[in-house]
Design goal:
mainly alpha; Hydantoin permease; 18 helices
Length: about 425
């Protein structure tokens, strides 16, 4: 199959000049990824738990942090034009890189499954409400998984084309929902809305960390996309336009109805304010645009882990595995999954960022099978994040930041104290 994702997107090599694109093109892809049903659900959950003022502040604070982190990881991708897997070989060694790539691919497949699960459940609810159709939700999950997997086989160009069509439509529906909401409650009334005690997110720090968790894998794996950037400035443009501004505004618009309905269910909220048909179109497009990139990331990782298998088979296999996750009911553990992702993925980025800027090494520059210092730094960062998430101990109040900062700091201190020869 000549047009599969790997043949077109250089999973095993450097991206050539002819394939490079602008920062605006990359921003559209990133915005499409952020405009996803799980993000909309989180928007409602965050505003429901923290209230309007704290919820909006938490989203923008997280957005700035994401833009900063993604700019740095994306910069490395743009400079090296290598995938995330290739970049982490230098600090972690060949075996260490494979182990962590297995983590990244598992997270990507799992997140693909969670999103397919939300998709099936939301389509079920919407069709029951607006058309009286009562089919089992698993039918929609299977159909959604197949549709998204098929799209990924067309590679980055397919992702780009879909987002150019879908993102403007999504934005129009979200603006429409915001105008409709303001027609039912004044902006002043919405702004005074307080958080509810029965919500899953009760603190500002946990809210920020949860937002970071939902795209931590994306930020850590940003080289997979930003290796297509023409220049490092294009990386900055893409990250500011997406994570730092527009994506956050649109997510707040999506979560806004929860301030009135006290529910974090995006689909039910749109139906409640009278937007049934737009709700159906939005959830299909939002899930489709984002989930194909989750599968894209998983496919890139698997291509390096299982090099002797045909590439398109790995893509289909990852899609099937993710769909099985969806059928297992993973959406019931949505917030908990975000906590775990927010603890495990940022420290990987912390290590490879520190390594690159200290040594300028990236790719297969080492003959070492395993570099323990990188694994130690990653483990300490992850451990700190788990500790601050699930106990009363607090560092920065944002576990994902704790994980990134500790892993980067530990790795930098060890490397500066005990220099390691390049290639060893």
């Amino acid at each position: 199959m000549s047009n599969n994702i790997f043949a077109e997107n250089y999973a095993r090599g450097v991206v050539p000049e002819k394939e490079l694109v602008s920062g605006v093109t990359l921003a559209i892809v990133l915005i499409g990824m952020m405009l996803t049903l799980p993000m909309f659900v989180l928007g409602g959950e965050l505003l429901k738990g923290l209230g309007a003022r704290q919820g909006v502040a938490a989203f923008f604070f997280a957005g700035v942090l994401l833009a900063a982190l993604a700019s740095v990881t994306g910069f490395i991708g743009a400079k090296t034009r290598l995938s995330t897997y290739s970049i982490i070989i230098a600090p972690f060694g060949a075996i260490g890189a494979k182990a962590l790539t297995a983590v990244l691919s598992t997270v990507a497949i799992g997140w693909f499954g969670v999103t397919v699960g939300f998709f099936g459940e939301a389509v079920d609810v919407t069709l029951r409400e607006i058309a009286g159709v009562e089919w089992p939700a698993w039918i929609y999950k299977l159909a959604g998984g197949a549709l998204m997997t098929g799209t990924v086989l067309f590679g980055f160009k397919g992702i780009d084309l879909l987002n150019r069509i879908a993102v403007p439509l999504l934005v129009l529906v979200l603006i429409w929902s915001g105008i409709t909401l303001l027609g039912q409650s004044s902006l002043e009334e919405l702004w005074r809305t307080q958080g509810r005690a029965d919500a899953s997110i009760q603190s500002f720090g946990l809210g920020v960390s949860t937002v970071l968790g939902i795209v931590a894998g994306l930020a850590g794996g940003m080289p997979d996309l930003m290796r297509f950037a023409r220049t490092s400035n294009d990386v900055f443009v893409a990250c500011v336009m997406s994570f730092g501004s527009l994506s956050i505004v649109f997510t707040i618009l999506a979560g806004g109805p929860s301030l009135v309905t006290a529910s974090s269910d995006f689909t039910e909220n749109l139906i409640a304010i009278g937007l049934g048909a737009p709700a159906l179109a939005t959830l299909i497009l939002a899930t489709w645009t984002t989930n194909i990139v989750n599968l894209y990331a998983a496919s890139l990782s698997l291509a390096r882990l299982i090099e002797k298998r045909t590439d398109w088979i790995l893509t289909v296999g990852a899609g099937v595995a993710g769909t099985v996750v969806a059928l297992s009911g993973a959406t019931q553990h949505f917030i908990g999954i975000l906590f775990v992702i927010g603890a495990m993925i940022p420290p990987i980025a912390g290590v490879y960022i520190a390594h690159y800027f200290l040594t300028r090494e990236a790719g297969e520059t080492t003959t070492a099978k395993l570099r323990p210092r990188a694994l130690i730094a990653w483990a300490l960062g992850s451990g700190a994040a788990f500790m601050t998430t699930f106990s009363q101990i607090s560092l920065s109040t944002v576990p994902a930041i704790d994980a990134f900062a500790i892993s980067a700091s530990v790795y930098a201190v060890i490397t500066l104290t005990f220099p390691q020869r390049a290639g060893s």
